[in-house]
Design a protein that fits this description.
Layout: E1 7-9, H1 17-20, E2 27-31, E3 39-44, E4 52-58, H2 60-75, E5 84-89, E6 93-99, E7 104-105, H3 106-112, H4 117-132, H5 145-157, H6 175-184, E8 192-195, E9 204-207, E10 210-214, E11 221-224, H7 226-236, H8 242-251, H9 258-269
Antiparallel strand pairs: 1-2, 2-3, 3-4, 4-6, 5-6, 7-9, 8-11, 9-10
Helix pairs in contact: 4-8, 6-9, 7-8, 7-9
Amino acid sequence: MSHSSPEQTCMQASLPTAIGATLAAYAWERNKVGQSGASLHRLHGRSDAPDLFLKHGTGAIADHMTDEMTRLRWLGQFVPVPSVVHFVRTPDQAWLLTSALKGKTAGELLASRPELGPAIVDALAAFLRRLHAIPVEACPFNSDHTVKLRLARQRIDAGAVDVDDFDDERAGWTAEQVWASLQDHLPLAPDLVVTHGDYSLDNLLMHDGEVVGCIDVGGAGLADRYQDLAIAWNNLGDYGEALPDRLFLQYGLPFPDRRKLRFHLLLDELF
């Protein structure tokens, strides 16, 4: 596994006037990690101002960033997330400027300190319980499997699914094969909670043994709890068999629903 820096120094990007003045005298680094389709820069180096992150996208990515902005502002009432410093939207572009959270991602910590695996999993489970405890009646966003299936179908028809990125279990499959397998798992009786939408190791920031915030929340909303559990469980599988099992135990599900787990792993392949 590579431990190279996920960032590289770069020149300042072209910016709307409303944001440009805010970012004077910052040093810029482009983040090379992630699959959101947006460009992401870390802005740092000012002793008189905090570090920031700037995300930019066009087309459908700009739409997703608009979703992320509204969810950041809502989720911040309940769990730590980056604060929205500035947001600019034009018909075909979006710029989202947010505060930088302290800490390292759970993925970075596991890669560099594998002996901390059990403690990291316990922290991930605790934060997920906190997220899933947000009252469902307070959530204005619907991200359940019916919504995601509709979006997945659109992505398949547009040829936007990266079949080369499928998990080893589905290596060589087509997107249509994944779609057909999903149908075999329906109907699904959802146990709705407020979900992150992409509860991966790269989207959870940790400091002093605790999760101190989550990022990339554009898909947050009401969905079955296995939407989050499946992604975290799958990520942890890269670090052995014990950590995924520990996640369910610490979360409070010693006997996970394997059918729901398989369904959400299949669904995630299409995004």
